[in-house]
Amino acid sequence: MKKYICFALILIFASCKSKATLIEGSANKSLSAEKVIENHYNNKNDFSTLYIKANAKYKDDRQSQNVTTEIRIKKNEIILVSVRFLGITMAKALITPTEVKYYDKINQKFFEGDYELLSQWLGTDLDYQKVQNLLLGKAIDDLTKSKFRVTIIDKLYKLDNNRDTATQKAFFFEADNFLLKQQEINQLNADRSVQILYPEYKQYDQMILPLTFSIDAFQKDKKTNINIDYKNVSFNEELSFPYSVPEGFERIVIEKL
Q: What is the value of pTM for the model shown?
């Protein structure tokens, strides 16, 4: 059942005409880490609401599953993710800056709580901004709040903070629009790592969005892969965020450490 919570949150975690897939540049000159970060955040991000229909594939060591997902975002306020299989809603997650709500029809259970409890249970640090950034193709962390060194690796600008021996982070950017191509988080003491790849982007009037992204999560000898393909996108429509837990579901209780 924890699988569906991770899956729903990661998918969280009139149709707009798009331009051609962006041509991305190769890094061939030295820039400071601060300049790379500044250029990344200078990308247009002009929307109030965002609606995404996507196909998603989940795979772990035991099974593989294809689903459709509907993602509704009211910028910086609320995210609703609905996961469907054969047209039937199997799970929903409602995410705000202060709380997370989730229910899973397969196991008939639901969760309501804050990010501290959920992060403790899932074994990874989460908050609203990180989930929203993941879906928009942005760096999960606020890069202005840390010190990074910059190198050129495989024609990409790589920022890393390897001075922190407990948690190592790296972010890779192309050189034309400074779009995020890859981000990695390695927790060495826990033998846990996450790699997120953004192979292609598309230009919309409001902003640049990923066409697709993938997540590979490793924990000891276990691997989980999630691939997300955005199929339909629309901006600035009036959206509703319907969420209610079906009757009879059991609440998940997480004890604080």
A: 0.85
